[in-house]
Design a protein that fits this description.
By secondary structure, the chain is α+β, with helices and mostly antiparallel strands. 46% of the residues lie in helices and 22% in strands. Strands 1-2-4-3 form a four-stranded antiparallel β-sheet. A hairpin with an 8-residue loop joins strand 1 and strand 2. It is globular and about 40 Å long. This is Helix-turn-helix domain-containing protein. It comes from Actinacidiphila polyblastidii. It holds the Pfam family HTH_17.
Amino acid sequence: MASPPLAVLHTEGAPVLDLLTVPQVMARLQLGRSAVYDLLRSGQLASITLGRARRIPTHAFTDFIRTRLEQEAA
């Protein structure tokens, strides 16, 4: 069962940064675990590590999709 995305609050009225887990990205892209980790390892999909947990900022996820769409269009 997928957990809701984590939110990291910034001070001084800055926007909230939503973070996705690897299983959430797997579900959204309909890819397997290895494929998502390959994207992370290659740098195509940005992430942060919190302890042993890997989190993908939603803006990095949308940037990845936008980049792939632009590559497909070219």
